[in-house]
Specification:
With 242 residues, the chain is of the alpha+beta class. The chain is 56% helix and 14% strand. The protein is built from ten helices and five strands. It has a five-stranded antiparallel sheet, with helices on both faces. The protein is globular, with a radius of gyration of 18 Å. It holds the Pfam family GAF_2.
Length: 242
Amino acid sequence: MAESQLTDVFVEMADTLVGDFDVLEFLYVLTERCVELLGVSAAGLLLTDQQDSLQLVAASSERTRLLELFQLQTDQGPCVDCFRTGRPVSVTDLPAAQRWPRFTTAAAEVGFAAVHALPMRLRTEVIGALNLFDVQPGALDEGKLRIGQALADVATIGLLQHRAIRRGGILTEQLQTALNSRVLIEQAKGVLAERLQVDVSDAFALLRDGARRHNRRLSELAQAVVDGTEQLVPNVVPHPRG
């Protein structure tokens, strides 16, 4: 891992937290940078809502999103344990570990064999978990785990700082907005996938590209797509659905 690459990512993370940033886009970038820097196959991010329940807010791939949702629905898995204990959870070989049988089966179905969950934590306050998945069994070396935790810590500090500034209740308004926006974005992905006859991954990529090119919030563009007031056209040939 090049030192300059690592520095660039931390500068990007810190810079995004300045001003009126798009918190949902920031969290998606966090999952993508984890994949790039740490050499894992995928990453997902869970945060608490106002009822102190975990919710999925970002994932680097569609299969990761589905696995994270399954984990939340069954209330079983490494990421749930990580959040509850506030401690990292690493399982280098899910089938051999014989923990969380339903989660392990679901992970195998989407091709994941190892998982490393890192707490989104500041002192005693835990607001979520950053989850790293790999298709091959094996440990993630200590240096990469430290970098992953550092990225989680930077994101946590920024989110909690904004919570304090905005005088939120249990959670900052931005955190709750991110949770609400995720539902809207899922709806927009479905609309685009059906309208353009593409898979949901391509639909999401199109949505993010449109938001970036026109300097708009992801949730704002998603609302326009759902309302039918915005038409997005792929600028590359997408993968046909199915």
